[in-house]
Amino acid sequence: MALVKTDWNKYSFKDSFITKLFLKSVWNGYKKLLNKSNLNNDIKIMELGSGTGYNSYNLTQEYKVSKVTLVDSNKGALVASKKRFKKYKVELINDDVMNLKKEGKYDLVHSQGLIEHFQGNNLNKIISIHTNYVKKGGYLLLFYPTPTKTYKVIRKVAELLKLWIFSDEVPLKSDYVKNLVEKKGFRLVNSTRILKHTITEDGLLFKKIS
Questions:
Q1: What is the pLDDT of residues 37-88, one digit of tens each?
Q2: With 0-12 CB in 10 A as exposed, 13-18 as middle and 19+ as buried, what is 58?
Q3: 142, 152, 147, 151: which is closest to 178 by C-alpha?
Q4: CA distance 19 to 32
Q5: 79: helix, coil or strand?
Q6: What is the Cα–Cα distance from 163 to 189, expressed in whole angstroms?
Q7: Which helix (H) or strand (E) holds 164?
Q8: Residue 26 region, left (φ>0) first, then alpha (ψ -120 to 50), else beta?
Q9: How far apart are alpha carbons 108 and 60 in whole angstroms?
């Protein structure tokens, strides 16, 4: 049975205290994963379902980035992204990721909080969209919730309090995600887990080898 699509208009893109803590945890996960990469200067990065572009912006502070492309269907998110990047040149694409038609390859394609909103054939398709934009020798980084006991408890409480808005979110097991990506010519380079005592998320870093 199809799940009700998450209404992202209900999501606040303001950096509240809790949001800042969450984003900091995710970024720490990014850094841990990328410690095993050999990304050089003048890299091109693409973020799918980019939200406010927090992780991409931090990447520009860690690396010499020659191009940033952010893709999100929510105009409010891209407005927030533009403010975050300020004078930094960034390509903003307001489109449904599933309908994305764009030329070019990137050294790093990444997303956080995106792929768990797709199931079945659509999950395979959204991962293919990620992998298709990675150049040979480039990297794919994915973060997504995984079904630990703490995740299930926290989510149940949030649902009972009517605070849970992610109606089509399905947490993913990392072995399953790893298998889907490796079939597309990638090799797992690094993995990590964040927010172990709350809404647990797993992160995987892959390198394109064929």
A1: 999 889 999 999 999 999 999 999 999 999 999 999 999 999 999 999 987 8
A2: middle
A3: 142
A4: 20
A5: helix
A6: 36
A7: none
A8: alpha
A9: 12
Name the helix (H) or strand (E) containing 192: strand 186-194
Please say whether the beta carbons of 92 and 70 come within 8 A.
yes
Answer whether 112's CB lies under 8 Å from 182's CB.
no
DSSP per-residue string spanning 32-51: HHHTT----SSEEEEEES-T
**Residue predicted with more confidence, 166 or 16:** 166
Which residue is listed with tokens 């809404």? Answer: 199
**Domain ranges (residues) in the chain:** 8-208
Per the CB < 8 A criterion, the answer to whether 208 and 131 are in contact is yes
DSSP states of 90-148: -EEEES-GGG------EEEEEEES-GGG--THHHHHHHHHHHHTEEEEEEEEEEEE---
pLDDT band of residue 1 (cuts 50, 70, 90) is: low
Cα-to-chain-centroid distance, residue 176: 17
Measure CA of the first residue to CA of the last residue in the chain; give whole Å.
Answer: 36
CATH annotation of 8-208: 3.40.50.150
Q: For 83-104, write each residue's pLDDT tens digit.
A: 999 878 899 999 999 999 999 9
Encoded tokens for 13: 């893109």
Rounded Cα–Cα distance for residues 3 and 193 (Å): 26
